[in-house]
Design goal:
Layout (H helix, E strand, L loop, with lengths): L4 E7 L9 E6 L2 E8 L2 E7 L6 H9 L1 H7 L3 E9 L2 H8 L3 E13 L10 E11 L2 E8 L13
Antiparallel strand pairs: 1-8, 2-3, 3-4, 5-6, 6-7, 7-8
Length: 150
């Protein structure tokens, strides 16, 4: 998982902008696909009766994640990055709410499979009327490879 990557978005932007094509609807969630060279991206869009800030807080807090991710054992914030410095790196039109490097440990998914760990950078930002939580694997000197994990 050290090089895992995920992007979650919450947005009022119509789904078929930017090459996203509607794929179907399942349990109230509209599913979209986007062809990007040899990659196929996917996203789900659902209306929630909550303020965006509340949803983002829930999605990015260990307490909130533990209610939806039963594999999450522990999250440790290794470093908090200055949101203004991250905005400068990303360029205009982005308001960074939070950006941190996090060490994540998970329980074993099922018997016979080892528990996992990952060092990730997680940034939450506002862009084009929506919110984005971007997570990508990174290396950090304070998080050496842990032999307890795969």
């Amino acid at each position: 998982l050290r090089d895992g990557h995920a992007v979650m978005t919450a947005s009022g932007i119509p789904g078929e902008i930017g090459g996203w094509m509607h794929h179907g609807t399942k349990k109230g969630c509209q599913q979209y696909l986007q062809k990007d060279g040899s990659k196929l991206n996917s996203k789900g869009v659902v209306d929630l009766p909550y303020q965006m800030e509340d949803v983002l807080s829930f999605m990015t807090s260990p307490e909130g994640r533990k209610t939806t991710d039963e594999l999450l054992k522990r999250e440790t914030v290794v470093q908090t990055l200055d949101p203004r410095a991250v905005e400068a790196e990303l360029g205009g039109g982005v308001q960074v709410l939070n950006c941190e490097i996090v060490y994540v440990e998970t329980h074993r998914p099922f018997p016979g499979v080892s528990p996992r760990d990952a060092c990730v950078i997680r940034c939450t930002y506002l862009h084009q009327g929506g919110a984005v939580v971007c997570i990508s694997g990174v290396e950090h000197p304070e998080v050496p490879v842990n032999p307890k994990y795969v």
